[in-house]
Amino acid sequence: MTAFIQILGMLINAFVMLIIIQFVIGLLFAFNVVNTSNQFLAQVYQSINSLLDPVLAPIRRILPQTGALDFSPLVLILALNAILIVLSNVAS
């Protein structure tokens, strides 16, 4: 059971890293640090968005509108870490 928890933890950490990368690239585009015509970053951002949007969309529907700030990635990271903590405690 511990091997399963460790593998799940590794997958959750990879997912969290994708969320952080999406956030950082989005900030770079939003503040015009990087031009949106940069094909490489635009493609990476679009690919990560296509992976994360099915997971983030239900959270966005539940959360109230906060204008330009999107708190759904933060909620997802907290939820994933909470799940990992619960599973770790159940396994031990």
Distance between the termini: 9 Å
Rg on CA atoms, Å: 16 Å
Major sheet: none
Number of domains: 1
Protein name: YggT family protein
InterPro entries: CCB3/YggT (IPR003425)
Keywords: Membrane, Transmembrane, Transmembrane helix
Organism: Pontixanthobacter aestiaquae
Would you give an account of this structure?
This protein is an all-alpha fold. It has one domain (2-91). Helix content is 79%, strand content 0%. It contains 3 helices and no strands. It is globular, with a radius of gyration of 16 Å. The chain starts with a helix and ends with a helix. The mean pLDDT is 91. It comes from Pontixanthobacter aestiaquae. Keywords: Membrane, Transmembrane, Transmembrane helix. The chain crosses the membrane at residues 7-31, 71-91. This is YggT family protein.
Outline of this structure?
The protein has helices at 2-30, 39-62, 72-91. By secondary structure, the chain is mainly α.
How are the elements arranged and paired?
Layout: H1 2-30, H2 39-62, H3 72-91
What are the salient characteristics of this protein?
92 residues, mainly alpha, 3 helices, 79% helix, globular, membrane, transmembrane, CCB3/YggT, transmembrane helix
